Amino acid sequence: MAVAAVNRLLPALLFGAALALIATSAEAGDKTYIAIGDSITQGSSHPASCGICPVVFDCTGGCSTTSQTNREKCGYVRRLDAWLGAGHYVRNEGVGAEDTSEALSRFASEMNSNCGTPGDCVAVILMHGTNDMDKASISPESARDNMRSMITEAKSRNIDVLLMSIVRRVYMHTHTKWQAYRDLILALAGEQDLQSVDPHTPLCNNNWKCYNDNYWINGDTDVPPDGIDDLDEGPTDCTDPGEGDNDLGHLDPDGYDVLADKIKDAFPANTPSAPTPTTPTGTITNTKPDFVWSGVSTSRWFELEVDGTKSWWEDAVHCGSTCTVNPGVTLAEGAHTWRVRGRNLRGMGSWSATKSFTVSTIQPPIAPTPVAPTGELWESAPTYEWLPVSGATEYDLEVRDSGGNLDASAAALAAGTVCTASLCSHVEGTVLTGTDDYTLKVKARNSGGDSPLSEPGLGFTIRDCDASVKDLQDFASTPVTTVETVEHCGLVTAATLGAYTIDPSGDVTIFTRDGFAASNGFSVNSGTLIVISP
Amino acid sequence: MKTDFSKLVACAAFALLVGASAADAQLLRTVDAGGGLYLQQVMSRALIHEPDGEVSELSMPQGTSFRRLERLEGGWMAGGQVDVLGLTDIFLFRSVDGERSSFPAPPNPAESPLRINAVPLVEGGKLKGLAWIEGVEVRETAVYAASWSGTDWAPAELVSPIGPGTQIGLTGTVLADGSWLLAWSAYDGNDDEIVWSRRAEGVWVEPQPLHAPNDQPDIVPSVLAIGPGALAAWASSDGSTYRVRLASFDGNEWSDRPFVGPRRSVRPNLIREGQGAQLLFRTLVPYTWTLLELDAAGAVGRRAEVPTESTFQPGLAPRPGLAPLFEWPGEDITVPMSTEADWQ
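ok -> structure tokens follow
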């Protein structure tokens, strides 16, 4: 066996080096996509015009057997890169004949090389498994497990994965073998909540045979699709490309067009719109707050930025209509800002509006204790009283009826009452509605937040006048002379009271709200509630 | 490895040439490293490289791929499979005293649509049997074997019934006592593990794990009879990469040895070398093919490495007593490219 001569190899070496210098490369700020796969990703093809048997690359319509760098321009990668246009760079990391164990073993290194700076890489386009099937004798389960490990690695780097099912290679793959791998790959996409691309339908019309206009097949003349290929007419002479250099079933240029078009379908038309940040806002005491935003439907990942310097990436897989994320990082006391933006296969969307919040570790006050009113009241606008608590700067009152409903006036009820006295009070101008049992609760507030509401609350009862009983005025003209069940409540003035005639012989007791009682000849102050009871 | 300029140029050129043309190719050798016999498959072509340097092309059906090459008395046998009209079946090719022809596969009374991983079992240069994987589809397969009388195949023997998932990567060897040893990867419902079985006096033992169970794939085993026992090598995943492991069989039980390959090592292949063995495997990043010397117990001796991105498994030229010569298909695939690597 001959050992290769250096003088024969050197020109090829130099040619390869020259191509490497002019190879496509990413520009700073480009959205980068890493295409990981085998010969299909690499862009292997077999144009008959090249007239040689080993794999050549359909890069520019010409033939090449020597340049790894040319793969940058080959197959679906070239087509996708051109379609995405400026600002995008699809890097071809396809390696012919590679199986998933090899792909996994180099995967982290490829990520380190190409995606070292967070945010550099948008997605990995992963298409593998073909060579596991026959060449490597790796089971579909292990092929799936290897791909799952690659997906896990990509996700750990905040990189999305577009998962491709394998392209069936005519002549190589019987339908049942191919389908075993394809099914598990598509199931993996579902398990990992990934976008997937299954090119089988456009390439093969979802039939076990494949269009011969998409593959290099025996004597390929690139005829229009007829839904069936000549699988049983294999190549007979490798040295004659017109009669069969195509037995590996690699795609021809039309096939790569079809494949690229199918991948393009997975790309949304636009980058995500800006999310709407919700919380945190205002003052919070939690130094590790949740960040919540909405408007997430077209995003697959989010970048959360806090204070313009720190950012976290979040897979949108758990997000519904809103996304809740806790970066778990302790924020210092003081003012902070945050914003968020989405990312899909098209790249980063616009930033949201910036939200501000303040972290304060001052503890909220304890719950105050209400002390009044209690018992029965014959008035509907009581005075509320409570004991102040240390550190409180303001108080809110809450009054609920027996049904647990907030009183209609509760929204305005003493919200933000300031109290520096030893006993706090508030007279509500709005009357409570109707006879009922009520509960008063109070909460205090400071810059650290709100106290709990006082529990169990202070109960009191509002009594109202019964319209069916006689009014005081009724007694003015018809003095009460007999014991009868009468009851009256209402505000009377001294002036009006003076006109009343109450028969002293009648067994009648007059009560004031203060418990004052007299059988006759009493005096009250203006506005006193008088209850006349037998 | 020597670092003279000519070798560096040669290695770099291999990377360019082989990398560009390696999309679908493989190279099979017999388990005897010094035999100088190997079968090179590049796309549809299968070339047999004879020990005397002669290279010739095999005529085979469309869709054929070979996986095993065994030396026979006066020739060799290649085992593979052929895909035709939606079915995959065993394909055997034999060369004896210069006469080359396809060799009949064991009967397929069940008309199974899938029979793959044919492993010829050869003892003393004579074909003794064949083992293979068979099923209706890839994930419902069983392991079978049949003995060869010299003129006919005996009825197939069930080695391992259909399990919870795929059984694949079958390999085998004939031990010194004439018993047959098989190993393969079997999905246990959680991941692939390497399992083995042995046929002694016509009876197969129930398949058993070759290593302690784990939660990540163990794949692509290679076994080699050595002394009274055997060695087995395979690739074991830790979830982020693969690493080549080794175990030795004393005739009764396996002893799991430490990892012999570095992180990112794959595709192990055991080769007989004199009274010992060699282990060839690929390492990714940096890309190398590595050859390890092993003694009968699997202890690692010298190491030789060739840096190359080639995915081809290299051939090893017969060079008794000399540094290993790794060979790959060249620009002209009938003329191998070679590079020498010193033992370290």
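Helices of chain B lie at 5-21.
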